[in-house]
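User: New here, please read:
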Amino acid sequence: MDTKTDAQPDATERKENEEAVEATETPAAVEAAEAAEAEGDAPAAPRATGVGQGAGAIVSVGLGIVALSGNWLGTVASARESLIGQLNTAQTASVAKQVSEVYGDAWHAAALVGGAFALIALIVGAFVLARPAFGAPGKAQAAWIKSTAWAGVSLGVLGLLLAVAKYTDLLLGLPKTS
């Protein structure tokens, strides 16, 4: 009955493995590797896998989603502008001025923050799409990276359009006061 398992090599196999490792570390093997490197026959360096481009594309999509859905920074900026409007508006000011100072400025601050996130998403997505032209023009970009970057660019453009519409009061403008 054979009690040897696959996980435990016998002494002969271990000795052969040690000899193979030692053979690659001999001075002749080291000299041959150095000579091949000097002649340009060295093994090719590991190729880039596009991890950075993929991460950039995903960041672009994430920023585009944040630009469209709102974020903590936009909420804080809006609340700050609302508070400033309340502090700066006298009780005797007209209703139109009070609405503009308290609500309008807060609305515009949220639009500016959303627009900033959308612009960053657009820039990051465009950079990812343009990157192969400046890095390795012959190497094709992975399809998922391209499609994700295009999604980030699209969300960035949509976010910018909505931010401009909010800021210019085309979208949900302040109510008219009498």
User: Anything to note?
Assistant: The mean pLDDT is 77. DSSP finds six helices and no strands in the chain. The radius of gyration is 31 Å. Residues 67 and 117 are 5 Å apart (CA to CA).
